[in-house]
Design goal:
Elements lengths: L8 H8 L9 H12 L13 H8 L3 H13 L3 E4 L5 E4 L4 H14 L4 H22 L2 H19 L9 H19 L2 H19 L7 H17 L3 H16 L1
Antiparallel strand pairs: 1-2
Helix pairs in contact: 2-4, 3-4, 5-9, 6-8, 6-10, 6-11, 7-8, 7-10, 8-9, 8-10, 10-11
């Protein structure tokens, strides 16, 4: 049932609360409202009933309703607007918020380098394969710019290759971060944003050898060429070899 924006919307919203489940805590209210918002019953930018109306429907205080709406706003499901035409409005979840929550989890929970590499191994191979076949023409143009940069770095190695290590490493990280966008999968984008900080810390721990910049630049060139050519399986295999090389 899609809710309307006329005077019957509060009645429609109240019907979504049936069968009534007794609400006793702030968490109960948050879960009940979140369930309605995620059920598909509301349209993006549609206004929820007023705090007074929600208080009556849920049989809780307006203070509890207000706190519940603030929690839903923090979760990215509600936007609270002030003024005479303000109120709480439903909005589609932002993948960036999901990514931020995952990033905090990785930072404060006991997540090891081994955990990160184990997860990344399949995730990034799949990203590469999907990116190769789903990238738009505009995104392939961006990949081409990255490829030009990678070739310049590869071909301009000085007698001291380690002097270019930082530039090559940063380009490699940018490629890893760009691939999920090319998959056009919001879940992959959110997860990628979530592991960004952990991935960056992992990159910083790599101890380069004299031939490391040249090897890494060559691998980035190969991967980008395959992505631009829309060769999915080959891009997956190149990413697999790349991850194995730098994990060891």
């Amino acid at each position: 049932m899609r809710m309307r924006t006329d005077s019957s919307s509060e009645a429609d919203f109240e019907a979504l609360l049936s069968p009534a489940v007794r609400t006793r805590s702030l968490d109960d209210v948050v879960e009940k409202l979140r369930g309605i918002l995620l059920s598909g019953a509301m349209l993006p930018d549609q206004k929820l009933p007023s705090e007074r109306a929600l208080s009556r429907m849920l049989e809780v205080s307006r203070t509890t309703v207000r706190e519940a709406l603030r929690k839903l706003e923090a979760q990215g499901l509600v936007q609270i607007r002030l003024g005479g035409t303000g109120g709480a409005f439903f909005q589609n979840p932002d993948p960036g918020l999901v990514g931020s929550a995952l990033s905090m989890l990785l930072m404060f929970e006991s997540v090891t380098e081994a955990d990160l590499h184990e997860y990344r191994f399949d995730f990034e191979q799949e990203n590469a394969e999907l990116a190769a076949v789903r990238a738009t023409d505009e995104q392939r143009a961006q990949l081409t710019e990255m490829l030009d940069e990678a070739r310049r770095l590869r071909d301009a190695m000085s007698e001291d290759p380690l002097a270019t290590w930082t530039a090559v490493e940063e380009l490699d990280l940018r490629v890893h971060e760009f691939l999920p966008e090319l998959t056009h999968n919001a879940v992959r984008v959110a997860i990628s944003k979530g592991i960004h900080d952990a991935l960056k810390r992992s990159f910083e721990k790599v101890e380069p050898q004299p031939d490391s910049p040249r090897k890494l630049a060559a691998e980035v060139v190969e991967l980008l060429e395959l992505l631009i050519a829309a060769k999915g399986p080959e891009a997956r295999r190149a990413m697999s070899a790349h991850l194995r090389q730098w994990r060891s």
